[in-house]
Amino acid sequence: MQTKLSLFCSKIIEAGWLAAIVTVPLFFNIYSARTFEPDKITLLRAIVSIMILAWLVLVVEQGFGAEEGESTTFSERFRAWLKRPLVLPTLLLVIVYMISTALSISPQVSLWGSYQRLQGSYSALSYIVVFALMAGQLRTQEQVDRLVNLVIITSVPIGLYGIIQRYGLDPLPWAGDVTQRVAANMGNAIFVASYLIMIVPLTISRLVRSMVEIIKDESASWGHTVLAAVYIFALAIQLITVLFSQSRGPMLGVMGAAFVMGLLLLLIPRRQAVDTGRLAVKEIALAIGFVIPLGVAGGLTAGLGYAIGAGLQRLLISLNYQIDGIGFAGAALGGLLGFFGLYTYMVSTQRGWRWLWLSWLAIGVLGLGFILALNVRGNNLDPFLEPIRELPYFNRMAQITETSRTGRVRVLIWDAALELVKPHEPLGVDNDQFAKKDSFNTIRPLIGYGPESMFNAFAFVYPPDLAHVELRGSSADRSHNETMDSLVITGLLGFLAFYFVMISLFYYTVRWLGWVPDKTAQYGLLAFLIVGGIVGAIIPYLVQGEFTFMPLGLPFGVMSGLILYLAWQGFSGPKTLPEAGRLPTYTLLVIGLLSAIIGHFIEVHFVFSIAATYIYFWAYAGLLLAVIRIDTMKPIPDSSSVAAEAIEPVEVVSEPVSKTRRSRKGRSRRSRKTETVPAGPSGSALPVRRESWEMWTGSQGLAMAIILIILAFDFITPQFQFTLSNEKSASLFWMVMITWLVGFAIVMGSLAVKQDEWRTPLHWGRAVALYAVTSLTYFLLYTMVHRWQFGRRIAVSSIEDVLKASGILSGGLIIFYIFLVLLMVIIAITLIWGQTRGLPTWRSENWWLYPPLVLAILTVIWFKNVDVVRADIYLKEGERYRNNRQWNEAIALHEKAISLDSDEDFYYLMLALDYQLMAQDNRLDANQRQVAWQRGEDIALKAREINPYNPDNTGNMGRYYFTLGQVFSPERFQDALNYFEKATVLAPSNVIYRNLWAQTYYILQDYDTAIDRLQTSVSIDPEYAPTWLLLGDTYAAMGDVDQALAAHREALQYNSRGSGDGFAGFADQFFDQRLNFYISAGRGSDIIAALQEVALARLDDPKVYWAIGHAYNRDDNPEKAAEYYERALTLGDNSDTTLREAANLYLAQEAFDQAVPLYEQLITLNPADVESHSALAFIYAQLGNLDQAIEHNRLVLDQLPNDYDSLKNLAILYQQKGDLQQAFDAAQQAQAVAPDAEQASWEQFIADLESQIAESS
Fold first, then answer.
1. Can you tell me whether residue 1025 is helix, strand or coil?
2. How far apart are CA 899 and CA 897, in angstroms?
3. Which of 914, 884, 889, 918 is CA-nearest to residue 803?
4. Taking Cα atoms as reference points, which of 523, 645, 704 lies closest to residue 146?
5. pTM listed for this prediction
6. How far is C-alpha 1122 from the chain's CA centre?
7. Which terminus, N or C, of the chain has the lesser number of Cβ atoms within 10 Å?
8. Of 26, 74, 23, 62, nearest to 44 (Cα)?
9. CB of 447 within 8 A of CB of 103?
10. Residues 144, 135: contact at Cβ < 8 Å?
11. What does the alpha-carbon distance between residue 94 and residue 618 come to, in Å, rounded to a whole number?
């Protein structure tokens, strides 16, 4: 039975998916430590929880089971449901995720998600819930338009923010550089481009729809013109931001999506051509030849565009505006206009309809060849291609196949990930209480290691070479390839389920578009997709003899199969004419959705999915199912169909295939104004009227309010002060204003386009006012509350005040959640306004179910979403106090974080770090420090207990006990040895832990064992300088000079990020000890020779020359030492150490003229430098410059009033100068601090001065 409550719940679900597609890409939280992905995901999961609650209540209200009179059983309906498109593959994917999570090596991490990503099964299922509810509950054209409009509008502020960042106008002070590669609301350049490539095809589909209406009908509504202009503007912002991101994977995704979209669009006239037969040879030749006029048209308009752009740039420069690349942008825009303009002319004049698609295919082949040519070097084309490779943005496309840097990283990760997929020894440590041996190792190739568990598992197969191209010690949590990720986290079963979903999606969409006319075509399409994937996977093996590029070849094989199938259909021609009403309304939208998914499918095999791309992928899949169901009027059971298939009537919204006259369109629209049909066997007998224009406009305004309140939360900080005179705050104003205007234009344009369809006459003044009020009122109200909350100040004088101050930030997040949920409720109320007449309020007999349902959902939202972010806010605040060495405050905040999210090991690690740093603070007494050490130990052990397979948690315990062994009792070194050994079992190729293991043995003077551990490290990574350095030190401790020298020589030759700086390690605080060892063994010249070899490789490094000079100085060769000191000084080494050593050397050689400027430079650096003043006083005394000598002695006394030597010198200098009274005073002061052995001398000196003073009187 349908009730008011069930109808409200259905609209809450719609408000939920509207909120989800806005919040995930747009929202971020600068008040938390993670800021981006986890904060987006927790908000999404909270929204989805509300959607689930609404669905559960809806099912209870509607009733569970078939309607009266139906004979179908539950099992029959369930089997029918499984036959629906995408239902079975999605269900299998869910089952695999649940199995993989339950049997994961880290089940808790797999369920809730890792600290860094939060992409566990809970998050994955949240995306799929959105898909299921959209597929079942999205039922009308108004809902489709509302969703698509919002998707496009949401991209506008994100794109604008990227452009703002590019030109240095960011209102937020990010730590990293976001001007060279913009990150926008995603925090990562790759992520923002990955998101936008899923919006570009949808925007193009809407643009094409408006352009078609404008071209085919001279009397088309002015709304289409407005919409076309807005879509062009939005598209430009999206593409510019993708370019500014300079991300290669997403760029490939954009090109792939554009190619498939163009092919599908040009296949539409192929089906509609009068002659649908097979292409003739002449037509094939025409298609290929058409590439030439396309190139000419594009080239001419590109040249014109460049000239206009260059002129505009010169004009802007004359007006003091410096914006680079306008000429290039003009050329690109002009070329595109000429290129697509020619296609538009051909289509609009009905020329070449049968073969235009083939010309596009030829363009695609040429484009692919051009990209390959850019990436293949060392051939005759290099002189022509090299200038292109150096152009902005082309330079990134010329690095796609590079196998150094990031390309090398991916190859190494794929190779190592394949080792995880193969059978291997189980992970884990024997006889360890927590990191036990993996009981399910045998079936890991089938089920994987669990979502979010790759970080822990990858350490077991970490390739040593990866440390030389990426940060050493960091394990990979993603393989930058969706296929490989599915194999690692969900095994072969998850891999098959993933491709079952993707191939089903491609198959059904192409089928719905009309290109699968019969059984032969059905089998052909499946064969092309599956065989193409298999061939794509095999080719890399045949070329390389390895499966490294299999995860890349397989998806591209699938894509190639799809394109070849479409080409086959295009060549052979459609076997059936388009059916009346077959995808008339939504053909362009379906093409746009499919193209977006294909673009995502391409780029995600170079990067990895993020929250925004996950939610958009599943939302698009749900939207595809929904729009096809709407258009064909064959209802697909919703996600609750097992319980109650349909909930409300569905309006007929289909349009004829082709209407070229305005009057015919008007009659068609008027005939549909109130037409409704039941939504399925369980639908209510009461028809639901179409939305009024007021309802539709109001809902669009409220949807815009979601965008605006998120922008307020994102950018309006406690320090924010708005003024148009400030460029950065003004940029925020214009971002908000332009976003609102784009939304306003789309809504008004859409109202105009559908003006004849509304039930009541459209009043433009009311429409404008309604949109403005609904979008701005809520935004302004939230902004005021937001500023009040974050503007509160607390005078911090105690730990409680610290927690309260941080609670303000936490409270701001809660307020945002509340306002967003209330806005969802308001949207739902708006959407049911006037729709509930004649319906009962609710099924009162079920009232007892609702309180526990609400309580359960609110519990999940609060404890597993809101508290997760609140904990991170307290963590970030605690880090601020820790950086200021305010240990108690930091500890209190981090303990608060743990109380909110006690399952996260990272919070325990941060708290343990607080205690460790506190224990090392010399300001505290010994008892406080000891207590801190002990407390930190307990907390670090708890972190390991929570996540035992993370080798860093085990390695950190080894480090902790290593420090405790040095500070307290050497007995703790045994604990360090135990944990370092376990860390090397979990991460066998981690030479850092192996070296620490060896260093512990070194401290225990077990040098033989230390040597054995270090030799193992060398065998794993022979190019890691610290290993060789420690090996040399160990041999030195054993007295083996030759072996020590060989190891130290090896260490000194390395200097890179991956290998470390061997020289810097050798010349550390133990430099003198190493030099003394070699000098005492008579091998000083050998180590100096090794240092000189370093100098030959680092000619401009002054530190190397200082080290050589220092070594010569200690080896008693001052002449050579002086030579190298001078080289260091000449190269700009003005450090205290070099200046002082050189000055002291010259002083010892009595080279006063060379020593004086060095001492004076030291005094410039530190005016209170006592040693330099003393040296200058001595030099000036030796040179007979008594005044300068006296001055510097006095400057010494300013710092050390009782310095005996300075007082003695002053007495003598004043006597020499003839200032007897000053000499007498200085002598008396010197006598007061003189040693007993010199008291008699001072008495005589003072007596002589008294006599001289008397005589002079």
1. helix
2. 5
3. 889
4. 704
5. 0.90
6. 51
7. C
8. 23
9. yes
10. no
11. 13
Residues 6+ apart with CB under 8 A from 656: 580, 581, 584, 668
The C-alpha atoms of residue 1135 and residue 808 are separated, in whole angstroms, by 46
Mean pLDDT by 10 residues, the chain (1257 residues): 91 98 98 96 98 96 56 74 91 98 96 95 98 94 95 98 93 89 94 97 95 82 93 95 90 94 94 85 94 92 87 79 74 88 91 94 92 81 79 74 75 93 94 94 97 95 92 86 96 98 96 91 96 95 89 95 96 67 72 97 93 98 92 51 35 38 41 40 44 93 98 93 82 96 97 86 94 97 96 92 96 98 98 88 88 96 97 97 96 98 96 95 92 95 96 96 92 96 96 97 97 97 97 97 97 93 95 96 96 95 96 95 96 94 94 95 94 95 93 94 93 91 92 91 90 83
Q: How many CB atoms lie within 10 A of CB 89?
A: 19
Q: Which two three-digit tokens encode residue 486?
A: 């599915």
DSSP assigned state of 864:
I
> Whole-angstrom Cα distance, residue 1186 to residue 1150?
18
DSSP states of 15-82: HHHHHHHHHHHH---TTSSS-SHHHHHHHHHHHHHHHHHHHHHHHHHH-SSPPTT----HHHHHHHHH
Alpha-carbon radius of gyration of the chain? 38
**Per-residue tokens: 24:** 């995930």
Cα–Cα distance between 14 and 831 in angstroms, integer? 9
What is the separation, in whole angstroms, between the first and last Cα of the chain? 125
CB 204 within 8 Å of CB 235:
yes
CA–CA dist 1076, 1067 (Å, integer): 13
pLDDT tens for 365-417 read 998 888 888 888 777 777 877 888 777 777 777 777 666 667 788 899 999 99
φ and ψ at residue 1058, rounded to 5 degrees: -80, -40
Amino acid at 1131: L
Report the run of H or E that residue 720 belongs to, with start and end: none
CA distances from 687 to 2, 135, 137, 587 (A): 11, 21, 16, 27
Q: Which two tokens stand for residue 1020?
A: 């794993």
Half-sphere exposure of 734 (CA within 13 A, CB side): 16
